[in-house]
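Model: You mentioned two targets. I'll fold them one after the other.
Researcher: Yes, keep them separate.
Model: Target one:
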Amino acid sequence: MRHGRGNEQGISPPIIGLLGAFIAVVAVLYFAVPAALLRWDLDRLVFSAQSQRRTHEGKRFDVAVSPDATVVVRRYGDAGRACAFFFPGQHGGIGSYERTLFPLIREAGADVYAISYPGQDGAKGHAHVDRLFGQVALAVSRVSRAARCGMRRSVFVGRSLGATVALAEAVKFRPRGVLVDGLGADLASVVRAWMGRHPLSTGWRLLPVRALLGRRDYPAASLLQQMPSVPVSIFQGTADTVTRYALARSAVQGRPNVTFETVDGGTHHDSYLLAGSAYVRSLRSLLDEETLRSR
């Protein structure tokens, strides 16, 4: 009787080698692509899907911040009592805030000066993280002079990315106060939270995100440390999956000039709406009655 080797044969060593090489290349690309974006193309991640909804401002200031970019500042109200400079998140969306947030600010007694970064809501150009803070500072400086919005009668209001921008600009300008919601403890934690929300990108959390960002991490604790005399009010939702509640609270603990307001069940998108009257009271407190009466 002949003993055959059968029809099944093992996978040949060359094929195993090719398969291993393919898996290795996929693994390298899986981590190399996001690492490259964080290090050299962060703007593509931070500024995407900009809103172009129609706006209904009373006055518009277009401030040229470079040969190919502008920062747009829209004014809502003309009472001349106090000024609230508003810094939006990565998507802009001033047209939506006209209906939701700006009425709360107006109720507190301030005219709104809403800022749109380059590329947002009709502003010319494209935003770049490395240039943004200087460009916004130029716009705030010019508009505050033109509109007679001295810093003694101005507050800075920010949401999400705009919360970090508001704090960074407050370090330079020292306004009467700062009110923010959806504050990220730093950019690295926001990036890691985004990675964790998407199954295919969960593994990216193994990357050294903070090291890849370098000086572009903008930790809230460091910004607050640089302006100990400016009152800051923070509203943070417990259900915020973008800027985590626990991380934000930990970053601001021990700051005597900071009031941290918990919004139970608040998400990254609705905490300021759920806060409602508390948001208005906080803004009024930052402005105080003397500011509201003065011109």
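Model: Target two:
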Amino acid sequence: MNKVIITVVGKDTVGIIARICTYLAEHRANILDISQTIVQGYFHMMMIVDMSGADLEFLQAADELEHLGEDIGVVVKCQREEIFESMHRLTSLSQ
């Protein structure tokens, strides 16, 4: 499985989830888990996505999602799961 962690942060507005999920569906990326919250008008979403069946490479998807985020007024970041896990493992070791 080729898992990617996608985070979306910004001012809440209509259609954020729809735009991101539509992009992923159009490219055959499978959303495995999703969590979203809105705190005092600020939107935060974290997704775990399986890119194994996707019709594009990670770097292309990350770049396009970043631009999509700019279009809708949010910041979208993508990380490969193994990088995300390594970063958090290092953080916990240093504490």
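Researcher: Noted. Anything on target two?
Model: The domain at 3-93 is CATH 3.30.70.260 (Alpha-Beta Plaits).
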